[in-house]
Amino acid sequence: MNEFEKDPQSKNNDVVDSIKGFGFSLIFFLIIFFIGVTISVIGS
């Protein structure tokens, strides 16, 4: 008996997962943005 076949449905909420994914991508974008801003400020 395969233990993974007993309950194939994931208990995670899709809304929570999408919010996590959006939040992580937003944080990543902000980090890249602020790195670019600091480089441009230092360079000027």
TrEMBL record:
InterPro entries: YqzM. Keywords: Membrane, Transmembrane, Transmembrane helix. The chain crosses the membrane at residues 21-42. It comes from the Bacteria. This is YqzM family protein.
